[in-house]
Specification:
The protein is an alpha+beta fold. The protein has one domain: NE0471 N-terminal domain-like (2-Layer Sandwich), CATH 3.30.2020. It is built from 4 helices and 6 strands, in the order E-E-E-H-H-E-E-E-H-H. The chain has helices spanning 33-38, 43-46, 97-102, 107-114, and strands spanning 8-14, 18-23, 28-32, 71-77, 81-86, 93-96. A 3-stranded antiparallel sheet has the order 1-2-3. Strands 4-5-6 form a 3-stranded antiparallel sheet. Strand 1 and strand 2 form a beta hairpin. The two termini are 31 Å apart. The relative contact order is 0.19. It binds zinc ion (2 copies).
Length: 119
Amino acid sequence: MPNPATVPEHIAISRSKGVTIDWKDGHSSRYELQYLRDRCPCAQCTGAHGGPGREAQPASPLQVYKPRLKMESVEPVGNYAFRIAWNDGHSTGIYSYEHLREICPCPACMEASDGGRGE
Ligand SMILES: [Zn+2]
Ligand SMILES: [Zn+2]
């Protein structure tokens, strides 16, 4: 039996705003684009090579124009995840529902994940 907390009942995707997921257990999560982009779970972004997970960028006097973050496409991966292609060219991040539920940014979940260290 899949855990209803990690099974989406309904997913609403806005490519310029973000993703809202209503879960089977009645919880609802809203993810901003930047929030999702920052938490891209792919090896490149999480630094699977032992690095801190950020690219070293030489300081440049040139301000590179950065277009506003947007999702180019969102495609389902099996029935457990979806893959987001960003307008910055990055498209290797596969966001599993389990991962998404874990990073739910609502105050209740944030508090639960912060307060769980009372050893
Ligand atoms: Zn990534
Ligand atoms: Zn939550």
